[in-house]
From TrEMBL:
Keyword annotations of the record: Membrane, Transmembrane, Transmembrane helix
Protein name: DUF304 domain-containing protein
Residue spans crossing the bilayer: 36-53
Taxonomic placement: Bacteria, Bacillati, Bacillota, Bacilli, Lactobacillales
Amino acid sequence: MNLEAQQKWYNKEKRDYFNMYGYRISVFEVLWKNQVIRFLFIFLALFYFYLFFQRVKTSLKSGGSMLDPFHIAKGRLYIHTIILFRKRIVPLAEIRQIDIDYVRGRRMNGDRYHLYFTRKDGKSFTFHFGKSKRNEELVKNLANVAKKCHIKIYYYY
């Protein structure tokens, strides 16, 4: 194959590659003209940015990994889970009881842990996260720390 034939082949491949994305870009332009869809895109982007920022801020305060669902340090429970509309830092002295519920996934959705905390003032909060080896270790560590702090702990498997 001579050089001129190689350049034609390369240019044809390059054109086909960009034409494939040109269709998607034109669809996005049509969707962007609709005000409702544009508002929805912007709202979802800002919402997810806010949730991500909250997770990063909490993980920096706790000194734990951002990928962990929670971290216990300095006598406090730091909750890193992404969707949680409450204070993400709870002193362990305020917690009266912890219910650990293991939920089996259906239709290949994955297994989950559901943690239900009851505070001493009667208020409660809950969050859930996926099951992994690292998260199993965190739940065991949570149980050990809860026993040291005289917090009742209940398992539901």
